[in-house]
Specification:
Length: 382
């Protein structure tokens, strides 16, 4: 079949199944407001959990950074793209999160893939939670290592996989907070199991960093776990973009030699690193943002319970409402949009078939009134 025909068929099939994805140009403003095509909405689909993407100090740091360092890094960090500002961010991250080293990447997707491709060889085994992020699933599947998956958050499933593999190097991979479900991995038990089986543990804490644990150190700090590899991203609670791998001196030195996404890609702009530094400072020094987010999560869950709206057990900012059918999920999201609430319908393959959902995300930027109105609309539309 020609490419032309294959592409047309694939698009048609997606359309029929209610799986067509589209990007809309939207303007996101402070206080969780979003404008699309002249219409105004309250934004319940962002990962900007603390509302820091519009914080004056973060914006100021980025602007001053651009004036001082220029807008772009100009090259890979291995050429001339690594500035004292990047270095300071790496040191700050290592100090904040309690690791010997931090290495910056331009995105969480790149960091995850770089780590797996740099580390995994054919004699190794990767053992991952089934709901792990696409960046990790894809890298694990493409890597030369053996790739095994265990049922979501199942300690028995993980124990079975660890018991069934005997390669010298095994890397267990999970997330701190799962991106589409909002539930948390039992990291303390997983870490203990890894220790018993002499396996390494990698945690992707894209959705936990900044919002959980003392000083916003994330899921691992909250559960008093130090994984061998920790990936944190700057595009969610920190309100900016980019990512870092936290690891030992030896792993960092190895990544500097072999992580292709690091070596062959332009470094993130120094001004962006300056903005991330400002954001981390706020996260560490101002717990009131986390308190407000916790209050909003608790208010949302209480109001939903009162209205009989079925929720999952998630206690984080990600509060999915599972609908099941793709078309129905789309229709409900559309109904919410008509009422002025921007909520995205998430469908397969992002989530398992038959589990299309509204992925409602809460933020410290939401007011109680905005949340109350959303729940009223949700009750009405459901
Ligand atoms: C769990 C998880 N890891 C990694 C990523 C990728 O991070 P980034 O957006 O920085 O590429 C995401 C983004 O959605 C995510 O949800």
């Amino acid at each position: 079949m020609s490419w032309q025909q294959r592409i047309e068929d694939a698009l048609h099939q997606r359309q029929q199944q209610g799986l067509l994805r589209r990007r809309l140009a939207v303007t996101v403003s402070p206080h969780a407001r979003l404008t699309q095509d002249g219409q105004h909405f309250t934004h319940f689909s962002s990962n900007d959990y603390l509302g820091l993407s519009h914080h004056p100090a973060v914006i100021d740091a980025w602007c001053k950074g651009a004036q001082h360092w220029g807008t772009g890094a100009g090259a890979s960090g291995h050429v001339t793209g690594y500035s004292p500002c990047h270095q300071q961010l790496e040191h700050t991250l290592a100090d904040w999160l309690g690791f010997p080293r931090a290495i910056l990447f331009s995105s969480g997707f790149a960091a995850n893939q770089a780590l797996i491709f740099a580390l995994a060889e054919s004699s190794d085994t990767l053992i991952a939670d089934k709901l792990m992020h696409a960046s990790l699933q894809e890298a694990a599947a493409l890597s030369p290592a053996r790739y095994r998956r265990f049922p979501h958050n199942s300690l028995d499933g993980l124990a079975r996989q660890l018991g069934a593999t005997d390669t010298e190097n095994r890397l267990v991979i999970t997330e701190g907070v799962f991106s589409m479900d909002g539930d948390q991995a039992p990291l303390a038990a997983i870490s203990e199991m890894c220790r018993e089986h002499q396996a390494w543990l990698m945690v992707d804490d894209a959705h936990g960093i900044g919002v959980l644990g003392d000083e916003g150190r994330g899921s691992c700090a909250q559960q008093q776990v130090t994984p061998d590899i920790l990936v944190v991203t700057f595009g969610k609670a920190l309100g900016v973009s980019g990512a870092a791998i936290l690891c030992s001196d030896a792993v960092a030195a190895y990544l500097e030699q072999s992580a292709r996404h690091l070596i062959y890609s332009t470094a993130l702009p120094a001004a962006q690193a300056a903005a991330v530094l400002a954001s981390i400072e706020i996260v560490r020094q101002q717990p009131e943002y986390r308190k407000k987010l916790s209050q909003n999560i608790s208010d949302f869950r209480t109001l939903c319970r009162q209205q009989g709206i079925p929720l999952t057990d998630s206690l984080t900012a990600i509060q999915p409402v599972i609908i099941g059918d793709n078309h129905r999920a789309l229709a409900i999201a559309q109904g919410l949009q008509s009422a002025g609430h921007w909520v995205q319908a998430i469908r397969p393959p992002t989530v398992p078939v038959g589990s299309a959902r509204l992925r409602i995300t809460l933020s410290a930027a939401h007011s109680t009134e905005q949340i109350t109105r959303l729940v009223e609309a949700l009750h009405h539309v459901l």
